[in-house]
Design a protein that fits this description.
The protein is of the alpha+beta class and about 600 residues long. It has helices spanning about 5-20, 25-45, 60-65, 70-85, 90-95, 105-120, 125-140, 150-160, 170-180, 190-210, 290-295, 340-345, 385, 410-425, 435-445, 455-460, 460-480, 485-495, 500-515, 520-535, 540-555, 565, 570, 575-600, and strands at about 230-235, 255-265, 265-270, 285-290, 300-305, 320-325, 350-355, 375-380, 395-400.
């Protein structure tokens, strides 16, 4: 190998070391390594103008930003934003989960819908939407969240391997495949491999998760919150809750929240039975912690009891909830909420009041405020910045993810998603790619007001996109210097020149890198190596590309290997050993299943 190839391998080795240590963000580490390669290439070109081997040119380093797979990932964030802001997926999930009678039943009800949904939307935002749904569901049915959170992550990963859009890894590999001049991969091409793996993985989880996962409380518990808000909600006369019982409406045994009473006309119902049916215009008085109050605001068919909400200047979907503690010098002290004239003075509306961890009696508008009261306000986004230093409040803190949902547009968002899948599947014959379908769907989400422009911009995870682009540049450096070809030669020699053994080693190398660094970086680094190995063997490269997709996505044995694994760590109260105990056998199962199924569907050597 040339010194350039050795230098690239040295930089990649250093990158692995920094990523495994985890002291610095993975995007910073990978971008820094790309910068080093570009800088050394420029210096070497100046010192030796006739040099034949390039490390990484500026154009090659920047090419990742225009990679079709990376661009598709970026656009998909907007599509998912529309689904999130309308509550489409959350409402489907809540209705599908139902009422399990055992832990096995709960896991079955969770695994099947999550696996299916994950095939048609990116698995990371799907898990983000399901975490609060599953947390509430587990508390209602007295199931430890630790029995459900890892299965949630694993089901999303397994489902994501069934289509090109299920994971960002699939889109990245698809972009690399197309960038090399090949015909685009079909939308369901990976399904021939993903579906058998998903079935095997689901059967394993149903059999093993009950026994291998601990009974453990999450790191953060709703019951530990000392604040107890009193909140009033009205049953929308045109909403879906009219005529449903308290239990059917999901208002019984809410986590960290209880229904204190119902005001119906001149009658007040206390100690409300779970079989009591809701009527149009019922005023519900609930008491609970802030997280549950936020979730309450997102239930379709409920709306804040105050009519001031509709009078605020900012459109409701653009608002958020803000916590504000009344100061002892505030003019609000001694006045009722109604006398405080929040809408005209602060351009905000009081949704709930908390005082010393107990219920505050009386209607919200009639509560007389005292210093130290915590108010939950619905307000424009700039409220917190405008009143952060106000003498009226000790503390002003916005609550992330508290924007009211656009429930009325949920059906539109689901129709757009279905149209995108159909267009990507059947539009290939006329030159419509996955990127085209995603761009059209994202545009329709904005046009149909399923989400706003600011929400769409905030939904894009720039860290993931930067990592993808930088990882593609690192893979290009391996290819340019010949390091990939050399490593591929050694890989083939180790495999005895056999295509199947080479496929086995490609999966193993990708799987190991994914668990140590990140899935997209692993795919980008192994892709040129596998491509060179297939070329030297005279084998078809498609089975190797699909194997990389599966190996880079199927990360189960460490929390850092896949983003969704890390997301469920806190809510599930997990330790690293929990991932090893349940995930390592699943890793091995996916390895065996993949290298068994791939040659059966896609012959390694044509003819």
């Amino acid at each position: 190998m040339s010194w350039e190839a050795w230098f690239v391998l040295l930089v990649i080795g250093a990158m692995f070391g920094f990523l495994v240590k985890g002291r610095h963000g993975p995007d910073l580490v990978i971008v820094a390594c790309v910068s080093v390669l570009v800088t050394v290439d420029v210096v070497a070109s100046i010192l030796s103008p006739n040099r034949k081997v390039a490390i990484l040119s500026t154009a090659d380093a920047a090419a990742g930003m225009s990679n079709e797979g990376m661009l598709t990932v970026a656009v998909m964030y907007v599509v998912v934003c529309g689904l999130t802001q309308t509550g489409a997926v959350g409402s489907i999930g809540a209705s599908l989960l139902g009422r399990p009678k055992s832990i096995l039943g709960a896991q079955l009800r969770l695994l099947l819908p999550v696996t299916t949904l994950s095939a048609f939307m990116n698995n990371t935002p799907l898990v983000a939407m399901f975490i609060p749904v599953v947390t509430d569901w587990a508390k209602k049915h007295r199931i430890s969240p630790s029995k459900l959170m890892l299965p949630l992550s694993y089901a999303a990963i397994l489902g994501g391997t069934c289509t090109l859009i299920g994971t960002s890894t699939n889109l990245v590999v698809s972009g690399l495949w197309q960038a090399s001049g090949r015909e685009p991969l079909h939308f369901f091409e990976i399904a021939w491999l993903g579906i058998p793996c998903a079935i095997v993985g689901t059967v394993y989880l149903l059999g093993a998760a009950r026994f291998l996962l601990p009974e453990r409380k999450p790191v953060l518990s709703l019951q530990e919150d000392p604040r107890s808000y009193t909140v009033e909600m009205l049953v929308d006369e045109r909403g879906p809750l009219v005529g449903k019982t308290i239990e059917e409406a999901g208002l019984r045994n809410l986590p960290g929240l209880y229904l204190a009473e119902i005001e119906r006309g001149d009658t007040t119902l206390v100690a409300v039975s779970p079989h009591e049916r809701l009527a149009a215009g019922d005023r519900l008085v609930l008491v609970g912690v802030v997280e549950s109050v936020v979730d309450l605001q997102k239930i379709r068919g409920l709306k804040p009891a105050t009519d001031q909400v509709v009078k605020l200047s900012e459109p409701r979907p653009n608002r958020l909830l803000v916590e504000a503690v009344v100061s002892n010098s505030s003019p609000l002290v001694g006045r009722t909420v109604k006398e405080g004239r929040f809408r005209s003075v602060y351009d905000a509306v009081v949704i709930a009041v908390a005082r010393e961890g107990r219920r505050v009696k009386g209607k919200i508008g009639e509560i007389r405020l005292a210093a130290g009261d915590t108010l939950l306000l619905e307000a424009p986004p700039e409220f917190a910045e405008r009143h952060r230093d106000s003498r009226d409040f000790f503390l002003v803190s916005p609550i992330p993810g508290s924007h009211p949902l656009r429930h009325e547009r949920a059906a539109v968002a689901l129709a757009i998603l279905a149209g995108m899948v159909l267009l990507a599947t059947f539009g290939e014959g006329v030159g419509i790619t996955m990127l085209h379908a995603a761009v059209i769907a994202a545009g329709l989400m904005l046009f149909a007001r399923c989400c706003t422009g600011p929400q769409a911009r905030r939904a894009v995870d720039w860290q993931v996109l930067i990592m993808i682009a930088a990882s593609l540049a690192m893979g290009k450096a391996l290819e340019n210097t010949g390091a990939a070809a050399t490593l591929a030669h050694y890989l083939i020699a180790t495999a005895g020149g056999d295509p199947w053994w080479t496929l086995l080693f490609v999966y193993g190398a990708t799987m190991l890198l994914t668990e140590l660094i990140t899935n997209n970086a692993a795919a980008a680094l192994v892709f040129p190596l596998a491509e060179a190995a297939a070329a030297e063997l005279g084998a078809d490269f498609k089975p190797f590309a699909l194997t990389i997709m599966m190996a880079a996505s199927a990360s189960f044995s460490t929390p850092i290997g896949y983003q969704t694994n890390l997301m469920v760590m806190g809510p599930g109260g997990y330790r690293t050993t929990d991932y090893l105990r349940l995930g390592l056998p699943l890793n091995l199962l996916m390895w065996i299943t993949t290298v068994t199924v791939v040659p059966m569907i896609f012959p390694l050597v044509s003819g």
